[in-house]
Structures are given as structure tokens and as C-alpha cells.
């Protein structure tokens, strides 16, 4: 999968240093994937939440942080829409970011 954009991850882990290794591990794993459906995402990441409008929420660093992406399966592209703490996540609409 092609991930757009790593910059959003970097900006987050520069602020929250303990998230760096978990986010980079997620990035390296996902760029090797070739997902066709949300079910394939769920097969790899059992704790991921599949939302509407092709959104997926990943738990990062033992569920300390949340990562929301939008996946265009037909193009093999993952768009990073949000990364944040639980409090920050609670303040957004994950299906709209």
C-alpha cells in the first residue's frame, strides 16, 4: 500500500516521542500490504475498527494513541487523516476527518 503522508506521523511523534517506534512499525508493515477489502485489514489488525466511508481506526502503542486512515482499496492508497491521543480522538468525528 502507498501511504499518504508520512509527514503527519512524523509531526505527531516529534511531539509524542513514545509513539515514534509504534507509528514507524505500523508504517513499515502497512506499506508491504496489498489490501482489497476492509476484511483483509481486520484480519491483520484484529483491534482495528472499520468505519464508514472507507475509514479505519488503528490502536497505536497499546491503545494509547489512535490513528485514523482512509483507504482507497482500488488504488492501494492509505491516506492518514488523523493521529492523536484518546482525548483528541474523542473530539473529532472519525468519519469526517
Textual characterization of the structure:
With 97 residues, the protein is an alpha+beta fold. Helix content is 35%, strand content 29%. It contains 4 helices and 5 strands. The protein has helices at residues 6-15, 20-31, 38-44, 86-90; strands at residues 2-4, 49-50, 55-60, 65-72, 77-85. Strands 1-5-4-3-2 form a 5-stranded mixed sheet. Strand 3 (55-60) and strand 4 (65-72) form a beta hairpin. The mean pLDDT is 96.
- Radius of gyration based on Cα positions: 12 Å
Low-confidence stretches: none
The H-and-E topology, N to C, reads as EHHHEEEEH
- SSE class: alpha+beta
Order of strands across the biggest sheet? 1-5-4-3-2
- Measured distance between first and last alpha carbons: 20 Å
Which sheet architecture does the biggest sheet show?
5 strands, mixed
State mean pLDDT (0 to 100 scale): 96
Number of helices: 4
Shape: globular
Annotation, overall tally of beta strands: 5
What is the beta-strand fraction?
25-35%
Helix content: 25-40%
Amino acid at each position: 500500500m502507498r501511504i499518504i503522508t508520512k509527514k503527519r506521523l512524523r509531526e505527531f511523534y516529534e511531539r509524542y516521542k513514545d509513539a515514534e517506534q509504534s507509528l514507524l512499525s505500523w508504517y513499515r508493515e502497512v506499506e508491504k500490504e496489498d489490501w482489497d477489502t476492509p476484511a483483509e485489514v481486520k484480519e491483520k489488525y484484529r483491534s482495528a475498527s472499520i468505519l464508514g466511508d472507507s475509514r479505519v481506526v488503528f490502536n497505536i502503542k497499546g491503545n494509547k494513541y489512535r490513528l485514523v486512515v482512509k483507504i482507497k482499496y482500488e488504488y492501494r492508497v492509505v491516506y492518514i487523516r488523523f493521529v492523536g491521543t484518546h482525548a483528541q480522538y474523542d473530539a473529532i468525528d472519525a468519519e469526517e476527518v
